[in-house]
Amino acid sequence: MSLRNFLSVILAISTIAIADGATAATEIKSVNPSGEPPLTPEQSAQAIKELRAKKLELPIENFDITRVKGSFYETHGGVMHGAADMLAPRNTPVHAVENGRISKLFNSKRGGLTVYEADPSGRFVYYYAHLEKYADNIHDGDAVKKGEVIGYVGTSGNAPPNTPHLHFSIGLGDATKKWWVTSSVDPYEVFK
Ligand SMILES: [Zn+2]
């Protein structure tokens, strides 16, 4: 755990302690960043099996996936990270992991420039955040091909300015109507 993460955990613990003195200091909200509860172990196992069968392409070419082992379970600001932070130099191309459709290009305070991509079944959402910029030719609703460059690694949103990385998550939900509401699957388990 980095110092920054450690401090945000302490902050979350103190906030809970102030709000309710009787609550144990160990109470960390174990939910996905979107607010959905984590999947049960059975649901996760099933989703990971389906995702592995898709033979997804890595969003960053030749990325060593062992580097994100455990990233999913870190606690950021009292909330389960639910994603993989893939460190790469600024402007490294980010590739669509599967054929799909852009549900939304969204600029958020925390995620910065983000892409929500729906898989062909509409059940999985691939989320790419902290982009430096989008690829020139992508828009909401566009079909994208597996391996197509959709953007470039950066530090937009709340990423540390000196740590360009891709925040990548795989969510299970309704990818076409409510792309922002998902329960996440550990990308490490999918790609390892
Ligand atoms: Zn992240």
Ions, cofactors, ligands: which are bound?
Answer: zinc ion
Q: Which second-level CATH architecture applies? A: Distorted Sandwich
Q: CATH homologous superfamily? A: Glucose Permease (Domain IIA)
- First-to-last CA distance: 21 Å
Describe the 3D structure.
There is one protein chain. The protein has 192 residues and is α+β, with helices and mostly antiparallel strands. The chain has a single domain, classed as Glucose Permease (Domain IIA) (Distorted Sandwich), CATH 2.70.70. Helices cover 18% and strands 30% of the residues. The strands form two sheets. Strands 3, 4, 5, 6, 7, 8, 9, 10 and 11 form a nine-stranded antiparallel β-sheet that branches. A two-stranded antiparallel ribbon has the order 1-2. About 12% of the residues have low confidence. The site of zinc ion (ZN) has 4 residues, from loops.
Question: How do the strands and helices of this protein lay out in sequence?
Answer:
Blueprint: H1 3-19, H2 41-53, E1 75-76, E2 79-80, E3 84-87, E4 93-95, E5 100-108, E6 112-118, E7 124-134, E8 143-144, E9 149-153, E10 165-173, E11 182-185, H3 187-191
Antiparallel strand pairs: 1-2, 3-10, 4-9, 5-6, 5-8, 6-7, 7-9, 7-10, 10-11
The structure holds zinc ion.
Short description:
By secondary structure, this protein is of the alpha+beta class.
Task: Fill in the keyword field for this structure.
nine-stranded antiparallel beta sheet, single chain, two-stranded antiparallel ribbon, 18% helix, alpha+beta, 30% strand, binds zinc ion, Glucose Permease (Domain IIA), globular, 192 residues
